[in-house]
Design a protein that fits this description.
By secondary structure, the protein is of the alpha/beta class. It is about 25% helix and about 25% strand. It is globular and about 70 Å long.
Length: about 270
């Protein structure tokens, strides 16, 4: 009975938590990295087209269906980067030779299907608020001093295994201003990324497309290649920041796509209401 009571208490805590949807929408024409393929969605089958097909299967029921075909990379919109996504001098995390794992059907190891469901203590670093701003200036580089200052101002401690949510304010442009979202975003520099990595975090998350300024790929190498830290990008952190939920539980469920370098995801954060 005591064990049941404990489980019910745990379930009640979850049910009574406030749920924050951190995912961005996906749509035809959405902003994606200029080097990546576009996100395309086609209505592949219309109800009128299938009515006759299903009439032969289930006469008189008036049954029909519709479905779509989506063409995209796994790095459109809100997505997670697997460890095979980025290399340095041909080497993946742990010194693994990327060429030995890759083929036309994807990666034999270190791909996204190896990543378990992620449930992590998450710390929000709200850099605009730390600087008394609504949004960081265009192309602003978040420095190590900014990281330490934001942590101190929020009276938090980043623990090993945590996820860190980096807010710049640029998520607002995802659906309103593609040019600003793609080219004007602020972000962390590689030195700041390595500072976070030294704190033994497990997931690095940002509200912009490429995470880093001025050299996004150097920052990817710092997280993925040098430290084996997963990355999640294009999150919507505005409501979480508005409610000053600096500590929450992050839940992310990557798709089990064999060989894939990443996954579209719809993360949520749970916090006290």
């Amino acid at each position: 009975m005591l064990e049941i009571d404990k489980n019910e208490d745990f379930v009640n805590q979850l049910v009574n938590s406030k749920v924050y949807d951190l995912g961005q929408p996906y749509w035809w024409g959405m902003p994606v990295h200029p080097a990546d393929p576009p996100f395309l969605i086609y209505l592949y089958r219309y109800h009128e087209q299938t009515k006759k097909i299903f009439e032969n299967i289930a006469p008189g029921l008036g049954f029909a269906d519709s479905l779509e075909l989506i063409t995209t990379s796994m790095h459109s919109g809100t997505h997670l980067d697997a460890l095979c996504h980025m290399s340095k001098n041909g080497k993946l995390y742990g010194g693994v030779n990327a060429a030995e794992l890759e083929s036309h059907v994807g990666y034999s190891k270190m791909s996204v299907e190896e990543i378990p469901p992620l449930v992590r203590r998450a710390v929000l670093l709200d850099f605009p608020k730390y600087k008394d701003l609504d949004i960081l200036p265009e192309r602003y580089e978040i420095t190590p001093d900014d990281v330490e200052g934001a942590i101190a101002s929020e009276k938090l401690k980043i623990k090993p295994g945590d996820a860190v949510l980096v807010r710049t304010g640029y998520s607002r442009f995802m659906t309103t201003d593609s040019d600003a979202y793609l080219h004007k975003f602020a972000g962390m520099n590689a030195t700041s990324a390595r500072l976070l990595a030294s704190m033994k975090i497990s997931v690095a998350c940002s509200d912009n497309l490429a995470f880093g300024v001025p050299k996004p790929f150097e920052l990817h190498q710092a997280f993925l290649v040098e430290n084996g830290i997963f990355m999640i990008k294009s999150l919507n952190l505005e409501q979480l920041a508005k409610d000053e939920q600096y500590v929450s539980t992050l839940i992310v469920l990557p798709l089990k796509v064999r060989g894939a370098t990443g996954s579209l995801v719809r993360p949520i954060a749970l916090a006290r209401g």
